[in-house]
Amino acid sequence: MSIIGYRAARPVIAAIAHAMLIAVALCWTAPAAAQAEGADPVPLADHHMHIQSPLISAWLGEMQKAMPTVFDGISDDLYATRSGADAVRELDRAGIPKGVLLSMGYMFGFPAVPLEPEERARRMRAENRFNVDAALASHDRLVAFVGINPFQPNALDELGYWSRQPGAWGVKLHLGNSGFDPGNRAQVRKLGAFVAAANRAHMPLVIHLRGAAPFTVANIATFIDKVLSRAGDLPVQIAHGGGYGGIDQPTLDALDLYGKAIARKAPGTKNLVLDLSAVAQFDPSKAPIKDPSETRSFDEMRAAYVAGMRKIGLDRFVLASDWPALEPPAEYFAIERTALPVTDAEWRQLCGNLAPYLRAGWVSGSRAR
């Protein structure tokens, strides 16, 4: 299944389009039994999945009308409503015990298609409720992160509300969709304040950082020093291995900077992990727009990325499919086992890794009450 951010033909739209999350799962007996003795291990959790209510489907239709060329070549599955039951069904097919639902409620703050503030807040709340209710109905198979645009007026109200609601484990920030520019000091301050508020509310974060703004070493360092530092010991998961899918030099630069921050025990890195959604499977050399100065093959880029993982420590990486962006989890992880150049022992370790918010002993804001 195609995804706009991976196929966009325009560099400035590429990150925002993935930001739309297009065509856009710990112990349960049946999935565990599905792993026959001697079979390849499967992940304990899929750390990056998406469902969507009819509200999102209709909103994507409005976006398509406003920006038709962005949607060229995208599957009609983009507009299909997906439920929590659909997510559990895919987890069962893959033999995966648990899935993390990342709400797309932040999309109603997408600046290119404006809404009145009251209507934006209403739709964001409704989409987040759709995800949280799906998790509550899943008999502990799913956990839900609500989606918030941290630059909208309702951001702190939405954070506060969900920190008190059963079933809400954390917050998904899609900073590409939200128009974040690390070079904008006012935005950096506002985002840092939101991250600090999430820390106080005990609401873990999943953050997609890369967007249309320049993804430079200086800008990544600004995010680490001025924003991530405000998270304290809060679990933070960086999506797409530090980039926005695939591997290019800026993604490798970001990986290196996260590794250096972890090594020096920088503030905000105690419970920092990176998810590997869409990192090893999307070959940037096949995109319509590519870096003409890049001469390495994708195999070489994947090897460089895995070398960076080993330098940081594989315990800092969690498996994730970004379902339904590419393939369903069963097929996705079968491909990833081959595409990611790790040893059998390293793959077993990755399959057993859980983000801190899924480990025994962690209590999110809503579960603390």
From TrEMBL:
List the signal peptide residues.
1-36
Q: Which residues cross the membrane?
A: none
Q: Name one GO molecular function term.
A: hydrolase activity
- Which Pfam families does this UniProt record tie to the protein? Amidohydro_2
Q: What InterPro entries is this protein classified in?
A: Amidohydro-rel (IPR006680), Metal_Hydrolase (IPR032466)
- Keyword field contains Signal: yes
Q: Which UniProt keywords apply?
A: Signal
Tell me where in this chain the Amidohydrolase-related domain is found: 117-351
Q: Which Gene3D superfamilies match?
A: Metal-dependent hydrolases
The protein's name: Amidohydrolase-related domain-containing protein
What species is this protein from?
Sphingopyxis macrogoltabida
